[in-house]
# Entry
Amino acid sequence: MKITTVLFDLDGTLLPMDQDEFVKAYFGLLAKKLAPHGYDPKKLISGIWAGTKEMIKNNGECTNEAVFWKEFSRAFGDRVLCDMPLFEEFYKNEFSGAKAVCGCNEDAAKTVAYVKSRGFRTALATNPIFPKIATLSRIRWAGLEPSDFELITTYENSRFSKPNPLYYADIAKTLGVSCEECLMVGNDVSEDMAAQSLGMKVFLLTDCIINRENADIDVYPHGGFNELSEYIDTLLREENN
# Structure
């Protein structure tokens, strides 16, 4: 089936980063922001991880946002709901400090522009465990704009997370396309290549590859942004023959 839509992961794909360094910087900034308001740093980080794990396990009954805050409030009680403006303020301001541990590859924006110029629809299929405000910031750190994508998955608009195949099925449904019409581009073998199980084509971007289980990556088309552009050209040639 003809590919009409390209889904891009963000962290480690369009936005170069070492995930461990990013998480360390992100949590450090968040703890510094909230400690004066009575949030013990260790308990705070533990609560964030607990909420994240619940979002990963979300079965679709409610949004990831609702799942996160329900779990996070177990650690600190209902007071967290009153303090939500503090978290929003953090993402508007202090969160930008995490940009320092991320890179910026101009080929990312060029590739998205090239994909669109070839007539493909584009969506940002970043794991929806962040609020919209944080995701829009990271898009701009990568040298892109939210308007570059028809759909951006965030914890507010998503009911599943990677590597659950239902996450990818939900994206296709929202865009009004079949899974077979989609190409998923990402750097995480376990999370992003899971889209293949639904019939999506995949491309593994290896610049900041995450391969926790040391899987054989030769089973996937892979490489950098140049190889991705070449792969897309190949798909177009095959469709036109």
Q: What stands out?
A: The longest strand covers residues 182-186. The chain has a mean pLDDT of 97. The radius of gyration is 18 Å.
